[in-house]
Amino acid sequence: MRQRQLHSGAGRGIGAGMSIPPPEVLLVDTRRVSCDGASTIRAGAGYRPAALGHPRVFLEIDEHGYVDCGYCDRRFVLRGGPADGADQASLPDISSGASPARF
Question: What is the number of other CB atoms lying within 10 angstroms of the CB of residue 33?
Fold first, then answer.
């Protein structure tokens, strides 16, 4: 099982000398998205694993064109928005309702 580093200011894009891309990037067509950490894990038609993932959260994409899930770091990028086509490793983490850190 892969362990995830908790972001304490020295994570990807926040004051770090080296940035890493988010583990998963999804292009979406709406500014309001939901994430449960397991929606893309399937074993068959209509199967939703109950033991995997995290509580469902609803996220809002702001003027930056993307938002990160605070549980699983999945990044949602608005198709045609400012972050569509950008190098995702160069963008700072933005959780719903938060502004990116400015240094």
Answer: 19
In angstroms, rounded to a whole number, what is the distance separating the alpha carbons of residues 67 and 54?
17
Distance CA 57, CA 86 (A): 25
Q: Is residue 91 part of a domain?
A: yes
Q: Which residues on adjacent β-strands are paired with residue 26?
A: 76
> What are φ and ψ of residue 44, in 5° steps?
180, 175
Tens digit of pLDDT for each residue in 25-79?
999 999 999 998 877 665 556 665 556 788 999 999 999 999 999 998 999 999 9
Residue 97: inside a domain, yes or no?
A: yes
Q: How far apart are the C-alpha atoms of 47 and 68, rounded to whole Å?
A: 25
